[in-house]
Amino acid sequence: MIVDRRCFLRYVGQGVFLLGSLGVMNSCGGVDRDRLSARDQKQRQIAGLTGEEMDILYLASLAPSSHNTQPWTVRIVEPQHWIVGSARERWLPAVDPQNREVLLSIGAFLENLVIAAEVHGYAVDLSVVAKSTSDKEIVDIRLRKGSVRDFPLEKIKTRRTIRNNFSDREIGADDLRYITLHDKRRHLVEVMRPHGFYFPNRSPQGKYLQEGTIEANKKQALRDPAQQELANWIRWSNKDAEEQRNGLTPDSMEITGIAGLFVRNFYDRKSVLSKSFRETTVDKVIKQVRTCGGWLVVTSRDSRIETLIEYGMVFEGMLLRIRERKVAIHPMTQMLEETPGRDAIAKELGLSGEVQWILRIGYLNSYPDPVSLRMPLSRLVIT
Ligand SMILES: Cc1cc2nc3c(=O)[nH]c(=O)nc-3n(C[C@H](O)[C@H](O)[C@H](O)COP(=O)(O)O)c2cc1C
Asked: pTM for the whole thing?
């Protein structure tokens, strides 16, 4: 157990006595994402990349990924010709054995990459090279000069996942239309119209998704390989978070204030495997699913590699539109990961396609800034 003495914490049994002022508590906060990225920017160039290209890849890396594993890699083939791949050591075999979520996450990374490149005056040609979901190399990318796109990159920088404090107000039709807008000029595959189906939380389908999500979380919390995998991706201490720069931190799991201080100092891998942690996880999920506007279920025609990548892009496209509407989207993938699984869900909801995303959706009163960490580019770029 690592105890940070500067925190002046005395830990007695289950109780925590905090000695010191608020100022002390602030100095014991989590790892600051902006400080790390400012430090990275001062570091040396990566061979084969211009400063502008590094900026494009940094923005791409702000994409969401399951457990924040950041499963993407970028191989520099030649100037402005890259191959985006997937890193085996950042897969989640216990909850995502087919790499479905890896490919969705890589799709989200590519959406950011394409937008950032367009803002810098490039057009991007994408072509899928992977033949299997376990291939190392996934998408071939070529940048060529194009027109400059007017898009506020702040939207990429300020996007984040939020899981708590949702209002239970239903999502307005105008907001739903805006969020699920699909204005793509480029496609790897055609996106079904409509591709997003909204179910208010009080509707029978909303209730089905609430109960199904609770059940799937219970199953997953009791499934040791899944819980061990989760434990491997939680960075409880600041030291671990700063070293790894991926995974979930207390801040990104919204464990803040005194609770955050406590877990940063006293929790470790073993805590995640304890009975009480598993039970608390399920209790949190029950609270979450009871309070939200509803659910957005996204379907596709099939689950081919190109389709999963496209639907990762579609997902990120939606996420880049929600903050301005004070809407939060919380992916809750456990129902898709546990039995009876995706076919049964589509059937129960009366949807014809394959379910790729189950998203809890709700309005927020205030929108906090992003906190999840990202690895430095040097850890994902292969030269
Ligand atoms: C494919 C995929 C699946 C996800 N599943 C879940 C989930 O089941 N529960 C959850 O709380 N967050 C889920 N997330 C959100 C990630 O945990 C989040 O993106 C990651 O921790 C990085 O944080 P950020 O989105 O704030 O940058 C998922 C994200 C992706 C891309």
From this structure: 0.94
